[in-house]
Specification:
382 residues, alpha/beta, Rossmann fold, Dimethylsulfoxide Reductase, domain 2, 9-stranded mixed beta sheet, 5-stranded parallel beta sheet, 11 helices, 16 strands, 19% strand, elongated
Length: 382
């Protein structure tokens, strides 16, 4: 029998096939279910740094694949950053330094509070960037509001033409010839000259609004601009901690999600280890779904009902297809302190609990299951 430090739980906020049980009983059942799985997949991952770290540790022990539930929306950006690189700035620096800002498409669709933070402060750092901020909005959605304290010029462009428009502007920056496109040639030339005249420029975009080609084109445009001035990107990944989970996977395994541990070492393959595909194909026979964030909608996964599920988080209580094993877990930033990726700062930020909740952390539940996996393995060997 394996020994060592164990987190003690005193609440009975756990269920097996809908039957209330103690947390230790559910932990043992979850460990046994994972131990008997052909290929488990760890997903959800809308949790804090501690929860994602524990999820990665459990995936390694279980030989599982691991993938964030929202990775499909951000993977074009992950791929572009991984393959070609990108200059990325911090929002706090942009609000004080960026004198010329290129906004691309519906940039704030999932980050509606960010414009007030970014543009509520007049640039005051650097000799060339002090004063009124100028904004060029390429492909602004209908009904987009003006931004107080900034001069905005709109360049109309359909959403499906933004990548081509960026290619025209990039060609103009380099002095290359280009053909007709979704914006007029004069608009492309004017945008290029305007961006080259920035003291410190910034290109803001929502990663869910551009495909891989568009993101690569924008990143390349920013690289080209830095030959003569200072320019950077501010990609917005939206809620759910998808980018935070990808960063954690990178510093833990050397790769962004999606990662598999079935070979005994971290193996990165964005197609092979996509959670939905693994479940739809029948290759994965068990899902461990983690959800533990405040103010983040976590709908029942599309693949629910196709595979047995171990669910950690309050949202699973309302699923139409109840999980085989379910744990209620505290919410990071509400029931317990946590560290989360925050778009306002472009980095990880500590959040204090707003109320002292009695529920265990998702990280502690995952760690307990991982520890019990050692007991399952030892018992099987005996």
């Amino acid at each position: 029998m394996a020994t060592g430090h164990r987190k003690r739980f005193v609440l009975s906020n756990a269920w097996i096939d809908g039957r209330p049980v103690s947390v230790p009983e559910a932990v043992a059942a979850a460990a046994a279910l994972i131990g008997g799985s052909r290929l488990p997949v760890v997903t959800g991952l809308s949790t804090d740094v501690a929860g994602n770290r524990a999820a990665l540790a459990l995936a390694r022990i279980a030989g599982a694949a691991i993938d964030h539930q929202g990775s499909a929306a951000i993977y074009p950006a992950i791929t572009a950053i991984r393959d070609g690189g990108m200059m990325i700035g911090a929002p706090a620096e942009m609000r004080r330094r960026a004198d010329r800002v290129l906004i691309v498409g519906d940039a704030f669709a999932q980050s509606p509070d960010l414009p007030e933070f970014l543009f509520g402060h007049t640039p005051d750092l650097g000799e060339r960037t002090r004063g009124e901020r100028q904004i060029l909005w390429l492909g602004a959605p209908e009904g987009s509001a003006d931004i107080p304290g900034a001069s905005i010029e709109h360049v109309g462009c359909p959403a499906d033409g933004i990548a081509d428009a960026l290619a025209m502007i990039r060609a103009a920056v380099a002095g290359h010839r280009f053909g007709e496109g979704p914006i007029a040639a004069e608009q492309a030339e004017a945008a290029a000259a305007w961006m080259k005249g920035a003291g410190f420029g910034c290109a803001i975009f929502a990663v869910a609004g551009l495909d891989e080609l568009g993101i690569e084109m924008l990143a390349g445009l920013v690289f080209d601009l830095n030959a003569a001035t200072r320019f950077t990107c501010l990609p917005l990944f939206g809620p759910g901690q998808g980018f935070g989970a990808a960063l954690m996977a990178t510093w833990t395994t050397g790769f962004p999600l999606r990662v598999g541990f079935g070979r005994g070492f971290p193996d990165h393959d964005p197609d092979l280890y996509e959670a939905g595909q693994l479940i739809a194909s029948g290759e994965a026979d068990l899902a461990i779904h983690v959800a533990g964030l405040v103010d983040t909608a976590t709908p029942e996964p599309e693949w629910s009902g196709r595979v047995r599920v171990i669910a950690i988080g309050e949202s699973a209580a309302g699923w139409a297809n109840p999980p085989a094993i379910r744990f209620d877990a505290g919410m990071a930033g509400r029931d317990h302190d946590g560290v989360l990726y925050d778009e306002r700062f472009g980095s990880f930020v500590p959040f204090a609990a707003s109320e002292s909740g009695p529920l265990p952390r998702a990280a502690d539940l995952l760690a307990a299951i991982a520890a019990a996996m050692g007991d399952v393995t030892t018992g099987a060997a005996a």
